[in-house]
Write a structure and sequence with these properties.
Elements lengths: L8 E6 L2 E3 L5 E2 L29 E7 L7 E7 L7 E5 L7 E4 L1 E3 L2 E2 L2 E2 L2 E7 L7 E6 L6 E6 L10 E6 L3 E6 L6 E5 L8 H10 L6 E4 L15 H14 L4 E2 L20 H6 L15 E5 L2 E5 L11 H9 L17 H13 L4 E4 L5 E4 L2 E2 L13 E2 L5 E5 L20 E5 L3 E7 L4 E10 L2 E11 L6 H7 L9 H6 L2
Parallel strand pairs: 1-15, 3-26, 14-16, 14-17, 17-18, 21-25
Antiparallel strand pairs: 1-21, 2-29, 4-5, 5-11, 6-7, 6-12, 8-11, 9-10, 12-13, 14-27, 16-27, 19-20, 22-25, 22-26, 23-24, 27-28, 28-29
GO molecular function, one term: metal ion binding
InterPro entries: Calcineurin-like_PHP (IPR004843), FN3_dom (IPR003961), Metallo-depent_PP-like (IPR029052), MPP_PAP (IPR041792), PAPs-like (IPR039331), PAPs_C (IPR025733), PAPs_N (IPR015914), Purple_acid_Pase-like_N (IPR008963)
Protein name: Purple acid phosphatase
């Protein structure tokens, strides 16, 4: 069963303004046979590291609010072993140590390995660190790079991946850093692997993951072995750069028929978030700052109505949310969250919203539906210069396949749409400009299919533009912008 859009809404929101948007069209591209079948468990892509009790499924995420800490997580299969991270600025010279914690869980007849989480803090900005986990001959070594200091002109790249609905807000502090957007609904098919391999070549520095991770719930008894295999599959990226996590409907795993009555049990044990650092009351929603980006993660599978904690947190952080597109899959499932949050998008001039859940790609024009109510008759989105551009990127590669049936004719507010797997890159060039690209996995090949230049509305307002005129170039088109870097 496909993910239910109301339950997990994953979004990444950038406060910027679009220029050079192409005319609306539905892509004529049709995939050839490249089935959405899961990679067999015995595949080399799921290989277990050599050595007794060797750490596996290694992943890191941001560990504080301002980007000077990481949370290093891993699993040891046989026994707890040490929950320590040795790290330093020189390869194989680990002059610092951090102590972590260990947990595990059971789900019906599955018992997890020993899950370690360790916060490494007090890091310097813009620095490469090497780290080691495990002991003896089974120890493993990795590295990561910290972001630049918080600054509106900081340079950074994000990748966007995922298939659920997560809300991340890249606010008016826009940077020169490429932002990688790895599409939601990744899963562990050969298409998922293709997406990861293409993303690795982009230069993305941090992934904004939109939810629906392993799709373990698609197997009998929500097979936890598929959580383990997914962790080993994505370790090629997650051990070396932060993935900013959010959950999707496939992480709910509410199975009273199996005696499992708590929600998000495997996800919450395996994937930590720095929610306490942003004064959140739940790991399901939180905020971080990274370089020039302010990222706010919300979940539509958690309460978000009036007077509830998530809405209060959202308003406190000036966050924003998502809406559905004109694909037959999950159409209107996000309506309740749209009605709760869209007015804030428009009020604060949020410019770019990323969502997952629908297994396809679609980009809108700048539109809003804030005047809609059940009696007014204003049922359709209308052009609004203060509203965001909405982008659906639920095309990571999961086993449920593509949502290839769009409503016809294409609505006026839809700029580009295509039922293909792929990934996105958001390159924050400076406080005023960003370049966004969606790249299609063309039956295994990387093909750029949609490119847009965004202008940050906060910094390009008339008053601030005059202040910045002496220090910033005036760029007319995409080629002018790219030529500077």
């Amino acid at each position: 069963m496909r993910g239910w859009g109301l339950l997990v809404l994953s979004l990444h929101v950038l406060s910027c303004m679009v220029s050079g948007v192409a005319s609306g069209r539905t892509s004529s591209y049709v995939r050839t046979e490249f089935p959405s079948t899961d990679i067999p468990l015995e595949s080399e892509w799921f290989a277990i590291p050599k050595g007794y009790n060797a750490p596996q499924q290694v992943h890191i995420t941001q560990g504080d609010y301002d980007g000077k800490a990481v949370i290093v997580s891993w699993v040891t299969p046989e026994e707890p072993g040490p929950s320590e991270v040795f790290y330093g600025k020189k390869e194989k010279q680990y002059d610092q140590k951090a102590e972590g914690t260990t947990t595990n869980y059971t789900f019906y007849d599955y018992k997890s390995g020993y899950i370690h989480h360790c916060v490494v803090d007090g890091l310097e900005y813009n620095t490469k660190y090497y780290y080691k986990i495990g002991s003896g001959d089974s120890a493993r070594e990795f590295w990561f790079e910290t972001p630049p200091a918080i600054d509106p002109d900081a340079s950074y790249t994000f990748g966007i991946i995922g298939l659920s609905l997560l809300i991340c807000v890249l606010s008016c502090l826009i940077s020169t850093i490429p932002v990688s957007v790895v599409p939601g609904d990744l899963g562990q098919t050969f298409n998922s692997l293709s997406t990861l391999q293409h993303y690795e070549k982009t230069g993305g520095q941090t992934v904004l993951f939109l939810g629906d991770l392993s799709y373990a719930d698609r197997y009998e008894h929500d097979d936890g072995i598929r959580w383990d295999s997914w962790g080993r599959l994505v370790e090629r990226s997650t051990a070396y750069q932060p993935w900013i996590w959010n959950s999707g409907n496939h992480e709910i795993e509410y199975r009273p028929d199996l005696g499992e009555t708590s929600t998000f049990k495997p996800y919450l044990h395996r994937y930590m978030t720095p929610y306490l650092a942003s004064k959140s009351s739940s790991p399901m929603w939180y905020a971080v700052r990274r370089a020039s980006a302010h990222i706010i993660v919300l979940s539509s599978y958690s309460p978000f109505g009036n007077m509830l904690f998530q809405l209060a947190f959202f308003c406190f952080c000036h966050a924003y949310s998502d809406m559905d597109f004109f694909n037959e899959a999950h159409y209107m499932e996000g309506e309740s969250m749209r009605s709760a949050f869209e007015k804030w998008f428009v009020k604060y001039k949020v410019d770019l919203v990323f969502a997952g859940h629908v297994h396809a790609y679609e980009r809108s024009y700048r539109i809003s539906n804030v005047n809609y109510n059940i009696t007014s008759g204003n049922r359709y989105p209308v052009p609004n210069k203060s509203a965001p551009v909405y982008i659906t990127v639920g095309d990571g590669g999961n086993q449920e396949g593509l949502a290839s049936r769009f409503y016809d004719p294409q609505p006026d507010y839809s700029a580009f749409r295509e039922a293909s797997y792929g990934h996105s890159i958001l390159q924050l060039k400076n406080r005023t400009h960003a370049v966004y690209r969606w790249n299609r996995n063309d039956d295994g090949n990387h093909v750029p299919a949609d490119t847009v230049v965004f202008h940050n509305q906060y910094w390009t307002s008339s008053t601030r533009r005059r202040r910045l005129k002496k220090n910033h170039f005036h760029l007319e088109n995409l080629e002018d912008l790219i030529s500077l870097f």
